Amino acid sequence: MWRISLIAVTLVATGFVITLLSDVQAQRRVYSGRLNIQQLVRRIEQLERRVATIERARSDRNPTKVVMSAEKAKEHVAAAKQRQAFSEKLYSKGYISEAELEADRFEFTRALKVLQFAEAARDGKPTEDITTKIAILQAEHNLAVAKRQLQFAKSMTIKGFSVTDLGAHRRVVDEAQKRLEEAKAQQ
Known about the structure:
By secondary structure, the protein is mainly alpha-helical. It is 85% helix and 0% strand.
């Protein structure tokens, strides 16, 4: 009898220990769940603060205000000029493609136009003509890129590689051409 009651006490005690262990594990899960929730709440608060900051910045934006100061525009021109010179060296050595060189040349030309815009806005001169020239420049660049992509797709198709639908590339070229014509019509 004593032996049976000892086994029963041991079983009861073991069950109690198992119950205690399972309770501790459950508390850990709840605690870790609380941590995850707390982390999520902190992250949501961070995101809400960032959204509020962005909304304040947007509401403070004045449409007549110059987007970039003339000094900043000069810095962009200098940086674009350095990138273009470096790209020309890399292209002459065969390290980059002609498309990459053209992209850097475009960025330099665009930086010059933005500088003209910033200086005109600073001096109180009309900027509509410069804005139109920038839009035309961008449209011409987009058309050149689209044509280059179409040419590449054609060459890959000729070589036997499966490329996306050439019709899609042609539509992109047509859309770029249409945007260029619209930009020129505004001039």
